[in-house]
Amino acid sequence: MELGAITNPDAQRYGKPLDGVRILALEQMQALPYATQLLARMGAEVVKVESVMGGDLGRGSQPGITDPDGRFVGATYLRNNLDKKSICVDLKAPAGRQLILDLAPRFDVVAENFKGGALERMGLGYADIAAVHPQVVYLSVSGFGNTTETPYDGWPAYAAVAEAMSGIYDYKLEPGRPPMVSPVGALGDIGTALFGTIGVLAALRHRDRTGEGQYVDVAMFDAMVSMTDLVTNFWSLGLRPAPGQGLAMILDGFEANNGWFIIQVGREHEFERLANLVGHPEWLTDERLSTRAGWRAHMDDILRPGVNEWAASMGNVEACMALAAAGVAAGPCLTAQQVIDDPHVAARDMLIEIPRPDGGDPVLTPGNPIKMSKVSEGPDVRMPWLGEHTDEVLGSELGLDGATLAQLRADGVIA
């Protein structure tokens, strides 16, 4: 789907569900920017506040492109900042802090994802913003939260840190191997962003009902403990597999003639379907395979060789088609190119093409996974260049004239 395109145009007459909601986002990297991008896609107006010294840290991630002024723009920034405006303000300067305090009452939501306690020390924490805007919904996203003392106060936290601390890396550990870090990309960031989004929507609904604003505090560690729920839940129920042992089920990779696919079988009737489909009905009377633990124990000497032999003449998508037709859950391990070419991805408009100002193939970033019958999708607007809207926003929101803006820029307060 090209940037700026619209799907479900008949729904445009309804507008977007968050039309009129305004968000001032003091954000960087992904854990908050993904959330505000999602809210922007639902109609919210998002003004992103970036550092005067190079902007959002995500601009420095690799790989990337160059903007029209020849500045590098990294991948993390490119995929998390559609549909926003960018202003550059020095939050550590007294005049910069005052600009934020002056802007805050004009927004419904103020959101930040600095290290826990950092904004409070700058005089821009919840109490500071609420003092000038009592009805504000203030969202903090951090590694370990802001409202409860924790032994991890002050720790920097990227996605993988919170993921590791959730227990899931240890749970999936292979014997004699180090943990596999970031096995599904930035789960710690995007998962946390989704909880932050839910918190903001709930707080806005609460304010509609009561007239009261509030503080929404989301910790990445908390979010990952929630998303990797089986670690603690299974442990409490006595299921504590040794490294490499895995769950008592079939949840494994198998090989077709062009790559891998996975099968998940956790019930006896599903195992019967699998055995019959791959031509091994004798598995159903084999005492070694009479329990789920037996499936696990004989994965490498019986089950995987049998499934691989059956799939050897098929592609991985073809094998999964046959498994799905038989009622067995399976999925091909698609390459990046296969995902890009996938007909489902295209039909659901799940990749957005962003033209590159420096030429070359367009940048691809995920589309909106939330499909609503009475909400049109798009048009997405490209990510803003660094500080692109500083003068526009400060002029229109605070009435600052050109001379004042020029002096603030000369003083290094804005950029």
Description of the structure:
With 415 residues, the protein is of the alpha/beta class. The chain folds into 2 domains: 9-229 and 371-410, Rossmann fold, CATH 3.40.50; 250-333, formyl-coa transferase, domain 3, CATH 3.30.1540. It is built from 18 helices and 13 strands. The chain has a 6-stranded parallel beta sheet, sandwiched between helices. Strands 9-10-11 form a 3-stranded antiparallel beta sheet. It has a two-stranded antiparallel ribbon with strand order 3-4. A hairpin with a 5-residue loop joins strand 3 and strand 4 (72-74). Helix 1 packs across helix 8 and helix 9 crosses helix 10 (229-236). The longest helix has 24 residues, at 187-210.
Radius of gyration (CA) equals 25 Å
Report the CATH C-level class of the largest domain.
Answer: Alpha Beta
Helix content: 25-40%
**Low-confidence parts:** none
Which class best fits the helix and strand makeup?
A: alpha/beta
What composes the largest sheet?
Answer: 6 strands, parallel
The total strand number stands at 13
The CATH topology of the largest domain is what?
Rossmann fold
Number of helices: 18
- At the fourth level of CATH, the homologous superfamily of the largest domain is Crotonobetainyl-coa:carnitine coa-transferase, domain 1
CATH architecture of the largest domain: 3-Layer(aba) Sandwich
What is the straight-line distance between the termini?
33 Å
Q: What is the spatial order of strands in the main beta sheet?
A: 5-2-1-6-7-8
Name the beta content range.
Answer: 15-25%
Which features does this protein show?
415 residues; alpha/beta; Rossmann fold; formyl-coa transferase, domain 3; 2 domains; six-stranded parallel beta sheet; three-stranded antiparallel beta sheet; 18 helices; elongated
